[in-house]
């Protein structure tokens, strides 16, 4: 099973990558820009594997550049917040 098959696994995977980037010294703005680029790639190159990914793709496709950047930023915040909750912060 691919990490794309299960949204929780995808969030955990993304959260781990975000945490690694932060530990390597990447700033939040840079993280959000990378997330925006990855979002564009996923929207164009990867077929959604579950309902959550289909919703994200529909939101991405409906948005303009500013809205897509906001969505990417929210995804980064979502996985950061989930990581803080799971670590008890």
Automatic annotation (TrEMBL):
**Pfam families, A to Z:** DUF3243
List the InterPro entries hit by this protein, alphabetically: DUF3243 (IPR021637), Uncharacterised_YmfJ (IPR024702), YmfJ/YflH_sf (IPR038292)
Q: What is this protein called?
A: DUF3243 domain-containing protein
């Amino acid at each position: 099973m691919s990490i794309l098959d299960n949204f929780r696994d995808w969030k955990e995977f993304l959260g781990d990558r975000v945490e690694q980037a932060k530990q390597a010294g990447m700033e939040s703005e840079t993280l959000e820009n990378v997330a925006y680029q990855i979002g564009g790639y996923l929207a164009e190159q990867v077929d959604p594997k579950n309902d959550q990914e289909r919703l994200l793709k529909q939101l991405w496709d409906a948005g303009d550049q500013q809205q897509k950047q906001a969505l990417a930023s929210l995804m980064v915040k979502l996985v950061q917040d989930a990581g803080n909750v799971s670590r008890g912060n």
